[in-house]
Amino acid sequence: MKQPEFMILIDNQAYTKLRHFIELSNHDEISFLGLIDEIKDGDQIQALLVSDIYLLDQTVTPIETTLANKAVADLMIELASTSIDVSRLKCWIHSHADMKVFWSVTDDDCCSTLANGSYSVSIVTNSRGDILSRIDVYQPCHMTLDKVATRIHYPLSSEISELYTTEFQSKVKRSKPLPRSKDRNKAALTLDDQNELEQALDQGYINIYEYQELAGFSVFDDVCGGA
Ligand SMILES: [Zn+2]
Question: Which terminus of the chain is less hemmed in, N or C, by CB atoms within 10 Å?
Answer without folding.
Answer: N
